[in-house]
Design brief:
The complex is a heterotrimer. Chain A is mainly alpha-helical. Chain A contains 9 helices and no strands. By secondary structure, chain B is mostly helical. Chain B is built from 13 helices and no strands. In chain B, helix 1 packs antiparallel against helix 13, helix 5 runs antiparallel to helix 6 and helix 7 runs antiparallel to helix 8. The interface between A and C is medium-sized, with 25 and 28 residues.
Chain lengths: ~280, ~325, ~525
């Protein structure tokens, strides 16, 4: 089977149907979004309900996803953790990617001093370990959800900025941008109508991954006591606190990891599937 | 190398120095903002006011912050990064014993991950839309979405505990042969690759695809240029910019961000030194590590920028 | 670092194994039979096995950082204590019944517990060949008094008004007030004897069973057998490599993959994994570590004793023991003296969970239906898990506990005992007197709940110098009752210590002070071929 190679999209038959992968991804994402809202309400147990004896219990009728290291029902833990993982990560990635990209676009478009200064500031920020930054933010502002979002967002914005800027610089050198410039188009127009659409695919690809990094960052922060307060926990923390059960093959470790994986793969499938349509040749 | 490139490098160098300076000030300030200081961290539960005062005087912590900073800066400019507060060892020695480890691990990981990522990215770009492309895409995202400590722990359970092929610890001390090198580095490198390959691969794929959609590639295709050559000589050079940036970002993570791998494999690198020192509020060590991370990052970035300029003729103006 | 506090060794007699399930029998049964006699003194090793000389082991423990030190005065975590016992000796050693036994001292005599005459063992040499002299002892003890030494034992050393050589092998110590426990205090690793004038601790020059071949703080140390050790036949091992693996899962995996021979601080939940593996065993030591709930200020014993009682009655100790430590713990009774201490008052009625009394006191305290923040951290072992159980119990009596988990970083300097309710973690102390003086006396800096009881203080000072054993025991009994009834500290359990090792390692025993045989394993274990 020789797959079609490097053929221009103009050649292909216009796609009448939706991309399969994108749809599957969309369904999963929609499912998790719904869970993020109603999850805590439909969980069979309290998030902190300690069953006591059955630690790392396997899947059973009473505990559909097993129990964790304290004997708590994993299904409930995962459902209660959904709003934290999904909500915080979503908000943070929007801050990071959109903020970083917007900044990068303006920096690249205006060039000169603005570009130089912003890039240097971003470089400085990138040199600071996110753990240190998280410690400071939490010590200064407390460990609440908005602070977590801000910390994760700021932590990942420079990366998004860097990548977007490299793309922007590349695109800026293209003919159509030069043409628009010489036409006398305004900065905003050039940015949003000429440059952005041609950067969108890689930026969205990056956003998909950035979302994933933020989900994982939250687990790291919880480990330091900087994340959501117990007994609440996000999915990454669920994996971390139950890691001991791994050698027994306990569902407590595997289930939240699968939850993370399905969520992030789904997000990326959606981006791959639908973002592919927003393209502009030339 | 033409003069543009040289000028770029010179500019970067100058800006780099400024950035290093700025980073040192920022790190110093925010670490000072953290509650507690080295004396408190050292004494822990046993601290009494007199003991604290005595230790503070010994460490020079009773002086105001800006004086301490200039002290440190002055020492650094003369080539002496100071002495670690926690144990009195010279910082240069402390770092010197660990830096080669971190660099080795980073280099080994880069040697495996970058070619792999490029291969995946270019390969999937060339066959985009096909089943292979989709499967590989999902696989790369899946691999990166498994938390690092989970991958490492699974690897250790399988290869070290059950199979006993590899050792659970990465002891950099006793390596004599290449075989031993592989044994020690196999799992950490594999874990780290799982973390960083995805971003580089996806960025590569996206950037290459973008180039493949452009008119000059269309032109080349019409001219009958063979597909592989078209990708490698026409599309790829123009995609170098964003690819190089993604690679630089991922590799810079390898210098300072590998704390989990260092912790699980007990690998004595710079990342855990930095984390320990922040906890102990050991300012000279923290500063030195921060300088290192920053310098490493800037070097990588400069290489990325130079590469993107060199490869894109339009940017050489 | 941050292995909570300095944990100056607290020994205590370990009993035989009490009621246990099959698994636990496996643990204790696998190793030396635990006898009531001085199992861990330097006398005889295991009963039925003859030690074999030779072999090299690798030991991995849970804590270690670039703050590791070979200076006994600064010793602050497990890594330090183990190393200090490998390279140095103290004047005395603390055996499994918390009784001091002679070590570098041949005898320690006194008439009034104020002036002590120490006769030193002859023919003991440092690793560099120089003989042990009184000057070394004087230097080693007095240096703790200088603030610049940052000694963890400064509080104890302040009692020394005079330490001087009074003969070719004799030292006289004069205290500022009577303290019958001096021999036990001198058996802690902080008071290890170093050579007169030593200020450089990049290596260790001591009289101990091992010499220091390599020491890289935060990386590893290598000890080689001291061929001229003054205890005949010891030590058995050729070499010990010692380093830290802070991540517990990694530590367990290192043991099970054969990379190391001995590890400590096993999480109770990992025990099934280790015992299931062929060739490995877990060893439980009933140590006196406790993680306490501290109530102070407006929720403490001075301003709100009813709230304190409410909390104490509400604690579901069995559940905490089961869930937090998977049963590897002893139920505590809100006072710090552990059951294997000779002054332990067994007659103190065990306070159990009594929700009615808890509700009653809660109402009297005026906090019924209220929300109270509870500060915990992974820095205080098991506090986060315990806190979550407390949350559930509190709901049953109409109290809402709002858990605030703080990062381990900086916990001791900034959060421990600085909130109305927080958790602390105390390691065993060699003597009841030291425990009470450091943490429960009215004016102690670490009296975390602010409890003040004049009678307690009086008893404490009296008991310290009391040489009549019966009287002393009665005084300590009364003090335990006072703490149990009035102090603002809740102690649900005493955490046990879990070590794991290959079955080829022999000579291991439990020590109530701490795991790793009270940190003194190096001298006592050997490797089977």
């Amino acid at each position: 089977m020789k797959p079609t190679m490097i053929s221009s999209t103009a050649r292909r038959k216009p796609r009448a149907r939706l991309p399969v992968a994108g749809v599957i991804g969309g369904v999963i994402v929609a499912f998790w979004l719904v869970m993020a809202v109603i999850g805590p309400y439909i969980a069979p147990h309290d998030v902190g309900g300690v069953a006591g004896d059955a630690v790392f219990a396997p899947i059973s009728a009473e505990y559909p996803l097993g129990t964790d290291y304290l004997g708590r029902d994993m299904l409930s833990r995962v459902l209660h953790g959904a709003p934290y993982t999904i909500g915080v990560a979503l908000a943070a990635v929007i801050v990071a990617s959109f903020g970083g990209t917007a900044l990068a676009l303006f920096a690249a478009a205006s060039g000169g001093w603005f570009d130089a200064i912003v890039s240097r500031i971003v470089d400085v920020k990138l040199s600071i370990p996110s753990k240190l930054l998280a410690l400071i933010m939490i010590a200064a502002f407390g460990s609440s959800v908005p602070v977590l979002i801000l910390t994760a967002g700021i932590g990942y914005m420079p990366g998004a900025y860097r990548i977007s800027r490299a793309l922007a610089v590349n695109v800026q050198a293209m003919d159509y941008v030069q043409a628009a410039r010489s036409r006398g188009e305004g900065l905003a127009y050039i940015t949003f109508y000429e440059m952005l659409p041609n950067m969108l695919r890689p930026v969205l690809a990056d956003l998909g991954l950035r979302f994933l990094f933020i989900v994982l960052l939250l687990s790291g922060m919880s480990f330091l006591g900087l994340g959501v307060q117990p007994p609440e926990a996000d999915w990454g923390s669920l994996v971390r606190e139950n890691i001991i059960g791994l050698s027994e093959g306990a569902p407590a470790v595997i289930v939240p990891a699968i939850a993370i994986a399905t969520l992030t793969i789904a997000v990326n499938m959606v981006i791959d599937g639908f973002a592919g349509r927003k393209r502009r040749g030339g | 190398m033409n003069s543009t490139t040289l000028r770029l490098i010179a500019n970067r160098f100058g800006a780099g120095i400024l950035t290093l300076l700025a980073v040192s000030v920022v790190i110093f300030t925010i670490t000072n903002l953290l509650p507690g200081d080295a004396a408190q961290a050292m004494l822990g539960q046993e601290s009494t006011p007199e003991l604290l005062a005595a230790l503070r005087e010994k460490f020079g912590l009773d002086q105001p912050a800006h004086i301490r900073y200039f002290h440190w800066l002055g020492g650094l400019l003369q080539g002496d990064p100071g002495v670690a507060l926690a144990n009195g060892l010279p910082v240069a020695e402390l770092i010197g014993s660990r830096l080669p480890n971190s660099l080795t691990l980073a280099a080994a990981t880069a040697a495996v991950s970058v070619p792999l990522a490029l291969a995946i990215g270019i390969g999937t770009a060339m066959v985009r839309g096909s089943l292979f492309d989709r499967v590989v895409n999902v696989a790369t995202v899946w691999v990166v979405s498994v938390p690092e400590f989970l991958i490492a722990t699974v690897a250790v359970l399988i290869f070290a505990v059950k199979l006993r092929w590899l050792s659970a610890l990465s002891r950099a001390d006793d390596i004599a042969t290449f075989g031993e090198f592989l044994r020690v580095y196999a799992m950490p490198v594999m874990t780290l690759c799982c973390v960083i390959v995805a971003q580089m691969a996806r960025m590569t794929r996206a950037a290459v695809i973008d180039q493949l959609n452009s008119s000059y590639v269309e032109m080349a295709r019409l001219k009958g240029v063979r597909p592989v050559r078209m990708v490698l000589t026409h599309a790829l050079p123009n995609a170098v910019g964003p690819i190089a940036n993604a690679v630089a970002l991922s590799l810079s993570y390898l210098i300072g961000g590998v704390i989990i791998v260092e912790s699980i494999f007990n690998y004595p690198g710079i990342a855990s030194l930095m984390v320990d020192s922040v906890t102990m509020r050991d300012m000279p060590v923290v500063q030195a590590c921060a300088m290192l991370f920053c310098a490493g990052y800037l070097v990588l970035l400069t290489i990325a920028d130079v590469a993107s300029v060199l490869s894109n003729p339009r940017l050489r103006k | 670092m941050n292995e909570n506090d300095s944990g100056i060794i607290l020994p205590g007699a370990e009993h035989g194994v009490t009621r246990r399930d099959a698994m636990r029998t496996l643990l204790a049964g696998g190793m030396m039979a635990t006898t009531a006699g001085g199992l861990l003194t330097f006398a005889s090793p295991a009963l039925a096995e003859t030690p074999r000389k030779g072999g090299r082991i690798r030991v991995a423990m849970g804590a270690g950082s670039t703050a590791d030190t070979l200076d006994p005065a600064k010793g602050g975590n497990i890594a330090d204590y183990v190393r200090h016992f490998m390279f140095y000796n103290c004047l005395t050693t603390i055996d499994a019944k918390l009784a001091p036994q002679m070590e570098l001292a041949e005898s320690m005599t006194t008439k009034d517990a104020v002036t002590w005459t120490v006769k030193l063992r002859k023919d003991v040499r440092f690793h560099d060949g120089k003989p042990l002299t009184p000057a070394d002892v004087v230097y080693s003890l007095l240096r703790h008094k200088h603030p610049a030494s940052a000694s963890k034992a400064r509080a104890v050393a302040e009692e020394f008004t005079e330490v001087k050589a009074t003969g070719p092998n004799e030292v006289q110590i004069r205290l500022d007030s009577a303290n019958a426990d001096l021999p036990a205090l001198l058996g802690t690793s902080n008071f290890a004897i170093i050579r007169d004038g030593t200020t450089d601790f990049t290596t260790a020059n001591g009289t101990g069973p091992y010499k220091c071949k390599e020491f890289r703080p935060g990386v590893r140390s290598i000890s080689v057998r001291n061929e001229n050790y003054w205890k005949p036949g010891k030590p058995y091992l050729d070499e010990i490599e010692y380093f830290a693996i802070p991540d517990e899962a990694a530590r367990v995996n290192a043991l099970l993959s054969g990379d190391v021979h001995l590890i400590n601080a096993i999480n109770p939940r990992s025990v099934p994994t280790v015992t299931a593996a062929a060739g490995y065993t877990v060893f439980e030591s009933k140590t006196g570590h406790y993680t306490d709930i501290i109530m102070r200020d407006n929720l403490g014993p001075v301003k709100n004793p009813d709230f304190v009682l409410a909390m104490k009655y509400m604690m579901d100790r069995e559940q905490i023991r089961k869930v937090s430590m998977r049963g590897f713990a002893t139920i505590g009774n809100d006072q710090p003296i552990q059951p294997n201490n000779k002054y332990y008052f067994a007659g103190l009625p065990q306070r159990g969970m009594d929700l009615d009394k808890a509700r009653f006191h809660l109402k009297k305290s005026g906090m019924a239906g209220g929300t109270v923040p509870l500060v915990a951290s992974t820095a205080a072992n098991g506090s986060v898990d315990t806190a979550q159980i407390l949350q559930l119990s509190a709901q049953k009596i109409g109290l809402n506990l709002d858990l605030k988990r703080m990062p381990a970083d900086g916990y001791w300097s900034h959060h421990w005992a600085r909130h109305p309710m927080s958790f602390g973690n105390i390691g065993p102390r060699p003597t009841a007197d030291l425990m009470f003086t450091l943490f429960y006396k009215s004016n102690a800096t670490m009296n975390v709940s602010g409890w003040k009881n004049e009678k307690f203080d009086q008893l404490l000072d009296q008991a310290r110098g009391e040489t009549n054993e019966a009287k002393r025991k009665q005084m300590y009994t009364d003090m335990q009752v006072l703490v149990h009834e009035g102090c603002g500290v809740g102690i649900p359990i005493f955490n046990h210590s879990l070590d794991g090792f290959t079955k080829k390692l022999k000579g291991y025993g439990a020590h109530p002070l701490a795991g790793l045989m009270g940190y003194m394993f190096a001298e006592n274990v050997w490797l089977e071929s």
